[in-house]
Design a protein that fits this description.
- There is one protein chain.
- By secondary structure, the protein is mainly α.
- The chain has a single domain (about 15-185), classed as Ferritin, core subunit, four-helix bundle (Ferritin).
- It contains 7 helices and no strands.
- The protein is globular, with a radius of gyration of 16 Å.
Length: about 190
């Protein structure tokens, strides 16, 4: 069974051109995104401690995202870059969260599916970065991240299927894919993951 849907639209060519032309700024944003992804996985554990079937996967995902943060930070250190003083709001994720249902169960499903779509977009963009790299080490680094993000895109759908009927999950996931396409298409191009 396929655990995620394809993205509604591909990322624009202008996005990868922008990222590669200001890669240092992208790295700072990427580090922030990895910190937020780790915190997001752990926030599921804090908000839904009764969902014991998914806690081990959430903890593993949180740790893996934190390891990605560590790896990005090492790349930044090698380039003489510092972390940003504060993590800014991500307009992409903010717009998606605003579209969530408000009921506890519906919001739980929505948050899992948003996580899936965000990770799937991350995988697509890490693939683009990997393929755009002239540096062999950076090519390999982003290829590994691309595979990891794709796996995370699947794991959140797998979690949703534990608690919700397959038809409900895939209908709502399709809706989220469409919403994500609108959001990503509306955003200004910048040297950031989203």
């Amino acid at each position: 069974m396929k655990l995620n849907l394809d993205l509604g639209i591909p990322s624009k060519k202008e996005w990868i051109e922008c990222v590669l032309s200001d890669f240092n700024s992208f790295l700072q944003d990427h580090a922030d995104c990895e910190r937020k992804a780790s915190a997001m996985a752990m926030s599921f554990v804090a908000k839904y401690p009764d969902r014991t079937e998914i806690i081990p996967d959430l903890i593993a995902t949180g740790i893996e995202e934190l390891e990605h943060f560590q790896q990005v930070y090492q790349v930044m250190e090698a380039r003489g870059l510092q972390l940003t003083h504060s993590i800014g709001e991500d307009p992409y994720v903010t717009q998606l969260i605003k579209k969530c249902h408000s009921g506890r169960e519906e919001r739980f499903l929505d948050r899992l599916l948003i996580a899936s779509v965000v990770e799937t977009r991350g995988a697509e963009r890490f693939r683009m970065i990997s393929e755009g790299q002239e540096d062999a080490e950076m090519h390999r680094f982003y290829k590994i991240l691309w595979a990891s993000e794709a796996k995370h895109g699947h794991i959140f759908v797998k979690m949703a299927l534990i608690y919700f009927k397959e038809k409900q999950v895939y209908e709502r996931l399709k809706w989220w894919v469409d919403q994500e396409a609108e959001v990503i298409d509306s955003l200004a191009i910048r040297p950031a993951l989203h």
